[in-house]
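Below is a filled-in request sheet from our internal design queue. Each sheet records the structural input a requester submitted and the sequence that came back. We keep these sheets so that new team members can see what a complete request looks like end to end.

REQUESTER: design group, bay 2
PRIORITY: normal
MODE: inverse folding
CHAIN LENGTH: 128
BACKBONE (tokenized):
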């Protein structure tokens, strides 16, 4: 699996690396939502910095739509979720993340921000 995550008391850090096809995005979302504390998370930091260049250039809005629509089909209680930080250095990935956030926000009370470094994202969230 080209993703890993680490749980904290109030949130989650997710890192995607290597070649990440849409099926692995779906799998990561299902695995994360299955975590026992998922409904209690107040933040998440998703790092897309280490994804393979071949994967990045094959990403499309249609893929973002597919991931977003499947996300919407997975039941979840995100009322307490407050911050989502997404990190990428690649401009195409940043644009797709911005598109995704604009169309598929699953947490009604959350603020979403894009960053170019994990350090900036942790500073905004509040480094655990």
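RETURNED SEQUENCE:
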């Amino acid at each position: 699996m080209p993703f890993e995550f680490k749980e904290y008391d109030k949130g989650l850090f997710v890192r995607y690396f290597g070649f990440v096809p849409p099926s692995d995005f779906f799998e990561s979302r299902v695995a994360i939502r299955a975590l026992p504390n998922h409904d209690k998370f107040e933040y998440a930091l998703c790092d897309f910095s280490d994804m393979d260049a071949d994967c990045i250039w094959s990403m499309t809005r249609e893929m973002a739509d597919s991931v977003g629509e499947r996300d919407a089909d997975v039941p979840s209680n995100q009322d307490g979720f407050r911050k989502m930080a997404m990190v990428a250095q690649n401009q195409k990935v940043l644009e797709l993340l911005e598109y995704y956030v604009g169309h598929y926000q699953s947490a009604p009370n959350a603020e979403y921000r894009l960053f170019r470094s994990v350090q900036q994202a942790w500073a905004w969230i509040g480094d655990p």
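SHEET NOTES:
- Residues 59 and 128 are 31 Å apart (CA to CA).
- The longest strand covers residues 43-51.
FILED BY: M.R.
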